[in-house]
Amino acid sequence: MGPHPAVAAIRLAVRRVLHDILTDQTPPTPHERPPSPLVLVACSGGADSMALASALAFEAPRLGVRAGGVTVDHQLQAGSGARAEEVVQRLRDLGLDPVESVRVTVGRSGGPEAAARDARYAALDAAAVRHGAAAVLLGHTRDDQAETVLLGLARGSGIRSLSGMAAVSGAGGRYRRPFLQLDRQTARRACMAQSLPVWDDPHNSDPAYTRSRLRHEGLPALEKALGKGVVEALARTAQLSRDDADALDTWARQAEETVRDAAGLLECAKLRALPPAVRRRVLRRAAIEAGAPAGSLFARHIEEVDRLITAWRGQGAINLPGRVVARRQGGRLVIRQG
Fold it and tell me: Where is the tRNA(Ile)-lysidine synthase substrate-binding domain positioned along the sequence (predicted)?
């Protein structure tokens, strides 16, 4: 008799990702034994990441992959250190090695959720480098993807924001998300079928957090109004939006080379001839290159800069995040540190 259907589903998802990771590895020289890559799982102890850890522990040895784990202690709740050590022990019980707990200090920039995310990814990046890991697996599910799309829609940040989380992201494709096509309940059922202990983070049900309100109030209300299938439709929207955004980004990179003069300045007349979606991407890229933080650069900022091209009335300079200033001078758009 085979494994529980939920267990089979999570293992298949991880197996596919591990195959991709192995394919991406640099081939060894002739007569050289191929190295055994290390793959880490980021595990909070919740159902999604525990299911992911169990699937990695099962599949990795069968493919000649070393498997380890990292848990991040955000120090935001009483007893977080002891809980992190419990997670470390659970990962070791699964057979993962190396395993470690990393303590971080969460700042305040961008709000509590964004600050915690930034601290977590910085810790995971450092752990991957420290251990020489080929990849880090993240337990985001289709439900998480749907929530991310809705949050992007609420911000009005454009199609890139609607594209949600990528299956592969980070420097060199470090982060892999095997569960984006699986729902949250599949991961939880897999844990139950394997008698895996899980920890339910109280922050996930705390209405003080935007994502928590969306999860427990917003999405259920949408499903009540529109019927079942909302989560699947939003996840599908994310993939379609990502495909479109990738194509527009490529177009913008190519177009940028044609709208600069010999000195490298952006020519307003040539910018205006571009389709708006392409032009605004060129402007965003130029602002980021000048030093504007990508995470603080919103659609309203780019729209103001765009008016220097499309609605020029002699207006003054536009101040952007990161002390970057955009102004129009002699038919050229100048974006630089103020």
Answer: 266-333
The verdict on whether residue 80 carries a ligand-binding annotation is no
For the segment 182-207, what is each residue's pLDDT rounded down to a tens digit? 999 999 999 999 999 998 888 777 88
CATH number of 5-226: 3.40.50.620
Domain ranges across the chain: 5-226, 257-337
Core vs surface per residue 211-238: b (16+ CB within 10 A) or e: bbebbeebbeebeeeeeeebbeebbebb
pLDDT tens profile 58-71: 999 999 999 999 99
Distance CA 324, CA 318 (A): 8
Helical residues (DSSP H) of the chain, grouped into ranges = 5-24, 47-59, 80-93, 112-131, 142-155, 159-162, 184-193, 210-213, 219-226, 230-256, 268-272, 276-289, 299-310
Neighbours of 307 (CB within 10 A): 14
For residue 75 the two structure tokens come to 């120090």
- Written as six digits, the tokens of 324 are 């970057």
Among 170, 99, 101, smallest CA distance to 138 is for 170
46 annotated binding-site participant: yes
45 is in an annotated binding site: yes
- 44 is known to lie in a ligand binding site: yes
C-alpha 180/C-alpha 148 separation (Å) is 12
CATH fold of 257-337, please?
A: 3.30.465
Q: What is the pLDDT of residues 163-188, one digit of tens each?
A: 999 999 999 999 999 999 999 999 99
Residue ranges of the alpha helices (H) in 180-275? Answer: 184-193, 210-213, 219-226, 230-256, 268-272
Q: Is 295 annotated as a binding residue?
A: no
CB atoms within 10 A of CB 57: 19
Question: Is 163 among the annotated ligand-binding positions?
Answer: no
